[in-house]
Amino acid sequence: MSSSRRGLLAGSAAMATGAIAGCALPAGAARTSPSTPFDVAASTIPIVGSEQVYPVRRIYCIGRNYAAHAREMGSDPTREPPFFFQKPADAIQVVTPGVVADHPYPSLTKNYHYEVELVVALAKGGRDIATADALDHVYGYSLGLDMTRRDLQREMGDQKKPWEIGKSFDHAAPVGPIHPVAKVGHFTDGAIWLKVNGQTKQSATLKYMIWSVAEQISRLSQAFELMPGDIIYSGTPENVGPVVRGDLIEIHIDGLPELSVRIV
Ligand code: MN
Predict the structure, then answer these.
(1) Of the candidates 142, 29, 31, 55, the residue with the CA atom closest to the CA atom of residue 95
(2) Ligand 1 centroid to residue 114 C-alpha, Å
(3) What would the mean pLDDT of 163-178 be, rounded to a whole number?
(4) For the whole model, what pTM was predicted?
(5) Where does the chain hold its CATH 3.90.850.10 domain(s)?
(6) 221 and 129 in contact (C-beta within 8 Å)?
(7) Does the pLDDT value for residue 111 go beyond 80?
(8) What's the 2 CA to ligand 1 centre distance in angstroms?
């Protein structure tokens, strides 16, 4: 083989390797993805002040995490270990501040509930993360709705069956753009409220959380290896309730732009 022929082959091999390994792909793109017979949309959330989007890996949610009345009376005697569940990553419905998002009333339910929550987006993962280090793993924050088919959740619970069908369904996780920690800091206090058709339904402050964001991350990391792209719905205050088609939900957390959702 002539040296020029070898050079040509080496060049071809390099080009082929480049094509497969994705040397020319932008940072963050898949480098060794095998080919697939069809495309599956990535689940992403806009990042405020950035052209990049936040890639959602998993959605964790914490169960009942506010005890406003007990807190006002002093220490909370009912502090039990937090419990968690998940929604599928593609349950995300991005809601843009200043735009009323149409949110479809889901199938099968006759008792569809709102739950306003602080949403935590992780930049780093790990196992057995210490509470003192937990907030170093946060990329940013947003606010969102843990929408719930309450009748199905309760029916399944009563039957001691998994209540996933009540929590994990299409569009079950409306959320706003993510605000990087560098710009908004961490959220340990501040008002959180929800209105339906202009009437306040939920109203509390974040300091009434039984388990802080740092404690939630630490506890979650004992059960699961957390990863970048994991987000956490940090629980809802008291007074959840139903909506029907036509209702307008507005949600607020101090320091974040409000979001509006119309049930259609
Ligand atoms: Mn919830």
Answers:
(1) 142
(2) 9
(3) 97
(4) 0.85
(5) 42-263
(6) yes
(7) yes
(8) 69
